[in-house]
Specification:
The structure holds 2 protein chains of 2 kinds.
Chain A (H helix, E strand, L loop, with lengths): L1 E10 L2 H17 L2 E6 L6 H14 L4 E7 L4 H7 L5 E5 L8 H8 L12 E5 L16 E7 L6 H4 L1 H5 L3 E5 L11 H11 L4 E4 L8 H13 L3
Parallel strand pairs in A: 2-5, 2-6, 3-4, 3-5, 6-7, 7-8
Chain B lengths: L2 H15 L7 E10 L6 H12 L8 E7 L2 E4 L4 E4 L17 E4 L3 E10 L2 H4 L1
Helix pairs in contact in B: 1-2
């Protein structure tokens, strides 16, 4: 018997990262801005997307969404009411979306071509831990936090907030009855991701949506 | 809880590489995991036995080395070690520093095998 050490020095998620790079190149070539929305269950990702997609469509933008969920297609049905193309990805117990799932669901999505879109939203599975490891080729990762969740969420889930490009605070219409400490929440987000763009929104009243939509437009036009 | 899928990827990758060493027995697999990688080491170890069962890696040991966070501080013009994951501020000057240079690793470093000696075999 001879003992040997085999050096690999290879990323464990190499396959995902390679697929994600390929997706990113395709998104760039097609001129579509792709966003990956991540939060805990119940933050209001779907309501926020419903509002965003409706408002963008009203401005004449071409939008579509891929929606991750463990089992149901409830979110996809809600989003489809906006009239935009929506496709469900059921992960059947897997706690995150990966680049392979995105690749497979983009292929064979009837009537949808990346080149025919301005924005593609990916609603990740509600989870603040695992999605942070998986690059989906998105240009912008959005971490959402609702006023009902506690201002220390960014401190509790730093790996996700630190990997985000933008943060959205949802349900600001009920901030007061929830005793939401806005300054503390903003300070905590900035502690984990200094300088990140933060949007304070209410999907119900539409408060803060103008700033968010302006940011989306600016990111799309400024894409490399 | 995505540790099982991570561990399964490790098993697949090592199994592929084993093609070059027929009959070899895997003793140990070494990973480098960044503090910011969102992975719980205890869970990796817990899943290791399950994921390696009935594979050429069965009975092997998983060794995980944690990689601390290094971020670049523009104010100090240096890479600085952050004390934890709850504050991205330079420990020297207190300025925010968000340019993470190390600490997101999720890598297979190497694996150790026992090879059957060809001369003995012959």
């Amino acid at each position: 018997m001879t003992t040997r050490i085999v050096e690999l020095r290879q990323g464990i998620l190499k396959k995902n990262d390679e697929l994600a790079r390929g997706l990113r190149d395709r998104y760039t070539a097609a001129g579509v801005l792709v966003l990956n929305l991540v939060s805990s269950p119940g933050t209001g990702k779907t309501a926020f997307l419903e509002r965003t997609m409706r408002d963008l469509r009203a401005r004449g933008a071409r939008v579509a969404a891929l929606v991750g969920d463990l089992e149901t297609d409830n979110d996809a049905r809600r989003l489809a009411a906006s009239g935009a193309p929506v496709r469900q990805i059921n992960t059947h117990g897997i706690c995150h979306l990966d680049a392979g799932m995105i690749d497979r669901h983009l292929a064979g999505w009837e009537g949808v071509e990346l080149g025919g879109l301005d924005y593609l939203f990916i609603e990740n599975v509600g989870n603040l831990v695992c999605p942070s490891s998986y690059d989906l080729g998105e240009k912008i990762r959005v971490a959402l936090l609702s006023v009902t969740e506690g201002e220390d969420k960014p401190l509790k889930y730093p790996t996700l907030f630190n990997s985000a490009d933008a943060a959205v605070i949802t349900k600001t219409d009920i901030a007061e009855p929830c005793g939401f400490d806005r300054d503390l929440a903003l300070r905590n987000i900035n502690e984990i991701r200094p300088g990140i763009r933060i949007f304070e929104t209410s999907s119900k009243t539409g408060a803060g949506m103008d700033g968010w939509l302006a940011y989306l437009e600016e990111q799309r036009v400024g894409r490399p | 809880m995505h540790e099982l899928s991570i561990v399964s990827s490790v098993v697949d990758t090592v199994t592929e590489s084993l093609g070059a060493y027929p009959g070899a027995r895997v003793i140990e697999v070494r990973l480098r995991v960044g503090v910011l990688a969102s992975v719980v080491v205890d869970s990796l170890e817990f899943c290791w036995g399950i994921a390696t069962e009935a594979t050429p890696l069965a009975g092997s040991k998983l060794v995980v080395t944690m990689v601390p966070i290094l971020a670049h501080c523009t104010h100090c013009a240096a890479d600085v070690a952050l004390e934890g994951v709850r504050s991205f501020r330079c420990p020297r000057c207190g300025q925010p520093c968000n340019d993470v240079r190390q600490g997101r690793e999720l890598d297979i470093e190497s694996f150790e095998i026992d090879e059957i000696d060809e001369k003995v075999q012959a």
